[in-house]
Amino acid sequence: MVFNFYNRLTARQQSIYRQSDDIKYLTLKDIERLHNESSTLETLLIEENLIEIEMVCQTIADDIVSQIKSPRLKVQVLSVRPSDDWGELHGLYLPEDDGKPAKIQVWMRTAKNKKVVAFKSFLRTLLHELCHHLDYEHFGFPETFHTEGFYSRESSLFKQIRS
Fold it and tell me: 81, 110 in Cβ contact below 8 A?
C-alpha cells in the first residue's frame, strides 16, 4: 500500500519505498530478556526514573540490534517533548554523522501537561525510531520512509517483546 505522498517521490525514492513496503516482519530469536526489560521499563516509567529508563532503553536497543546483526546506536531519553504549532515531537532518529554513532532520542513527558507518556506509546516510539536505524543499517536503504511495511516491522517488534 502506498500513502498519498508516494506520487511526489522521485523514481529512485519510489523504488526504495516499495522495497521498504515489502518487508513486513523483523524476527527476534531470543525474546525472554526483552520481555523482562520491557516490564522493567514499564515500572520505571511509573517511577519516573529518567536515568534508569535511559539505561533500560539502551539495553533494549542493544539487544535488538545485536540479534538483527546491525550496528549499535546510542539511546537518549529526554524529559519534556518539544512542541510547536505543528504538534509534539515523540522521538527522533539521528543517523551516524562524522564518525559519531547514530542516536535515538525519545521524550518521556508530554509537552502540554508534562505527564509521563503511557508505556505502550513510549515503547512504540523507541521501536519506531529503532526501525529507522534498521532501515539504514540493516536493510541498507539510502532513505527511510513511513511505509505500511515500516509500521508492520515496528508492530512485529512490539508484539514479540510484549507477548
Answer: yes
Task: Please report whether residue 19 resides in a domain.
Answer: no
Partnered with residue 79 across adjacent β-strands are none
The single residue listed with the C-alpha cell 515531537 is: 89
- Terminus-to-terminus CA distance in the chain, angstroms? 27
Q: Which residues contact 151 (CB under 8 A, 6 or more apart)?
A: none
Count the domains in the chain.
Answer: 1
Contact between 65 and 133 (Cβ < 8 Å): yes
Cβ contacts of residue 11 below 8 Å, gap of 6+? none
Mean pLDDT of all residues in 80-109: 90
Would you state the cell numbers that stand for residue 155, as one nine-digit string?
A: 508492530
Cα–Cα distance measured from residue 103 to residue 73, given in angstroms and rounded to the nearest whole number = 6
Instruction: Note whether 94 and 130 are within 8 A (CB).
Output: no
Give the Å distances, CA to CA, from 61 to 6, 94, 127, 134, 139.
30, 14, 8, 11, 17
Structural domain that includes position 77: 24-162
Predicted confidence (pLDDT) at residue 81 exceeds the cutoff of 90:
no
Query: 83 pLDDT band (50/70/90 cuts)?
Result: confident
pTM, full prediction: 0.95
pLDDT tens-digit series, residues 29-68: 999 999 999 999 999 999 999 999 999 999 999 999 999 9
